[in-house]
Specification:
single chain, 5-stranded antiparallel beta sheet, alpha+beta, disordered N terminus, 9 strands, two-stranded antiparallel ribbon
Length: 352
Amino acid sequence: MPRSSALAAPPPPVGDLLRRYRDPGDPLSCEPVAQGLLNHGYRLVTTRGDYFLKHHLDGDRDTIRRQHRATRHLQAFGVPVAPPVEDTQGGTVTVIAGRCYALHPWIEGRHRNGAQLTTVESRRLGSLLGLVHTCLDRVMPDGVMEEASRRTHDDHAHDRPHDCADPADTFALIDELLTLARGRRPRDTFDVLAEHRLLERRTLLERHAHRRPPPVAATATGWVHGDFHPLNLLYRGAEPAAIVDWDRLAVQPRAEEAVRAAAIFFVRPDGELELAKVRAYAAAYRRAAGAGTEELAAAVHRVWWERLNDFWILRWRYQRHDRRADPQFPAASALAVWWTKEYEAVCEAFSG
């Protein structure tokens, strides 16, 4: 089901937790879910069935409850989701020893990337994300959106919300990462590739620094899933069974989520995008979300710039000494280069 951290975590207090629910059955097994990077999740099997048990690491109960309410309302609109199970008090967040847990139904299904989707299924994917955005507009109260926007402004007092990367900061980061990559002993093929991509990216940024986008228009923002990619979408056969992991539900530029998702779903191992599928996906998204071509073109530009300045995988490896994202680096780093070269074609695929 949803993604989970591979890092060691204290086992969940299954017995204490299940006593808070109505007839959940007796526990038989509780195994960590292996996929993913951030969350602690478990497949919990009881005598009455299977559940997904999620340990929310941030522990912000109000935020978690907001996510849970959103999924319940989205389900009523026909969005494929897996809302949490209510406990005997009608709550969905269980706090034990200071840790927050939620119990969800287990959804059988598999993850599918863009290479496994037909053009028709790619179109359905775009329609699904458009449905998510339009339904979130309906189910999230305006006051909550205003509060979320205010918090975003407060949290980024020195970094304007939705503003784009400053190349001066990126050049400094490139220098730091180059020093770390060159200093690794013993060096491996990843370190050699990282050095090559860092030098390559610095040249591209020097050439394109004048293309830094302006701040995003407020009219382009709304509630988004926040992390829409293959590991957060389960399929049963050809049909989406559940969109999972709503931890990053937030007010952000809507069309940018559509572009980011496509850049993950439809990237090939060599870093190229499957533009025929992107075109079908984007056209369906525009229809479903009511998004104009200018909004998509602006989103393409901002996400391209974001990718050009983004080194999160290298930061994980060299600054945090966490290699779990390493397998994503070859395609992700090649994409930024290819996208720069094929900028007009990518823009046309999303907005043409």
